[in-house]
Specification:
- The chain has 179 residues and is mostly helical.
- It has 5 helices and 2 strands.
- Strands 1-2 form a two-stranded antiparallel sheet.
- A hairpin with a 2-residue loop joins strand 1 and strand 2.
- Helix 3 runs antiparallel to helix 4.
- The structure holds heme C (HEC).
- Heme C (HEC) binds next to helix 2, helix 4 and helix 5.
Amino acid sequence: MNKVISAIVLLALIAAIGYNYLRIRSLESKNQQLRRVVYGIIDEPEEAIEVADIMTKLQRYMNKMWFAQLHSNWPLIEFYIEEMEETMEVLSTSGVIEDNIDISGLMVKFGLNPLGKYKHTVEKRNLEEVTESYTNLVSNCNNCHKLSDHPFVVIIKPVTPVYDNQDYAGSKITSDDPD
Ligand code: HEC
């Protein structure tokens, strides 16, 4: 009789352990699902645009564009204008407001508009006007920095190319020799 009771108790114990095991597994998977939801929500702001990343791109294009301009490499200048336009549009259409300052709105006035003027002078292929327009573009970068509480970010005409492994004159286009 005792043996029978022991066997029943043992079976009940095994069943209880099994039940608990399944319960823990199910709670674990529920926990993982919830974490995914929570992290999804927390991660969302990271997908929003980073103004500083956009600025780094603009800075790079302004540098390269200057050297393309020095060599009157019109197709290369036009390529950088396109890239800058796209980069500025990402910001201008994203509704970024920082400390009550409408950064996206300012990007139209101090970014896209002066870039449009620069593009216009480039179309005319008048190097003197193009150079003047480039300077105007730089002033607009800085005016926006002042208006958006970043007066300490000062852009200037570059002295050295940010990358030295590119021929800004594009003079090797017709040559097969990479040197
Ligand atoms: C809409 C206004 C606006 C315009 C136009 C603008 N900037 Fe900025 N810029 C900002 C703001 C705001 C920041 C600060 C970014 C941040 O808060 O992370 C900034 C920061 C920067 C920085 C600092 C980031 C770094 O890596 O040092 C650079 C460089 C920069 N801008 C370059 C430019 C250049 C080049 C232009 C012109 C082609 C330009 N910006 C035009 C608003 C502007």
